Please model this.
Amino acid sequence: MRNKISFLTFLLLFSAVAAQAQREETVLGSRNLGFSGIWGGPKAQLSRFGNTNQYVRGWQFGLEFGKALTIGFGGYNLHDDILWNNVAGQRFDMDWKVFSLGYGIQNFRAVHPIINVDAGRGKVRLLDDNLEDRVFVIQPSAGIEINIFRWLHLGLEGGYRFVADSDLVGYSDRELSGAFGQASLKFGFSWGRFRKDD
Model:
């Protein structure tokens, strides 16, 4: 009886050690990609539409995984209706909602690089003619993020807004697209320890 108990104990210990030694392989490597934080806050863009510089308001909300990858959603809209190319009778408005992917490189540092891609559907409106068109928007960006407090981060980025599927005469994809500068505030919290060796 004692031999059977000893054998079973040995077998259980061996199984536990073997299971610990065999780490699961993943496509994304050995980084722990578990749920690690929640972030959200406002964004502000300065961009060009036609030949008019315009302020764009935005917002973001995302879930953080592995202390680096953020998956979320957000939205953007022009702060005011604008006159397209400063021509009277051509009041213009645009808004778009996006699915967002962001990645922070060495987030444990006070200042670190970030990369973001937003993509989603939007609406372009010609208010004087009561016309509306649906477009697709994708806007990659890159920049830096500053960890002001553990619960407040400031992002400064530059990027380009690509617009597709515009069918309104005089409002081409190229004219609706444009470079932008962006500042964002992220409020939230990230838990767990950073693994600086990853």
